[in-house]
Design goal:
This protein has three helices and no strands. By secondary structure, the protein is mostly helical.
């Protein structure tokens, strides 16, 4: 589970950086979006088999961010 935790941390840092650099959201909303997206990314990666996480993780991230951006 250490790899999943590391993946979650990496996803959080990357997502937060991208959201902050684009300036599309306030820093607070960027932080919230990253906090909610990162665990989904790690969970999808953990559950996906046969190397398909290359497709499922970005798709899940896009879906989560699209839904959460409506908040």
């Amino acid at each position: 589970w250490e790899g999943t935790l590391a993946g979650c941390a990496a996803a959080f840092i990357t997502c937060l950086a991208v959201l902050l650099l684009t300036g599309a959201y306030t820093p607070a909303k960027s932080l919230l979006l990253a906090l909610l997206t990162a665990p989904v990314s790690a969970g999808v990666e953990l559950c996906t088999k046969n190397g398909n996480d290359t497709y499922t993780v970005p798709a899940a991230n896009c879906l989560v961010l699209a839904l959460l951006s409506l908040l």
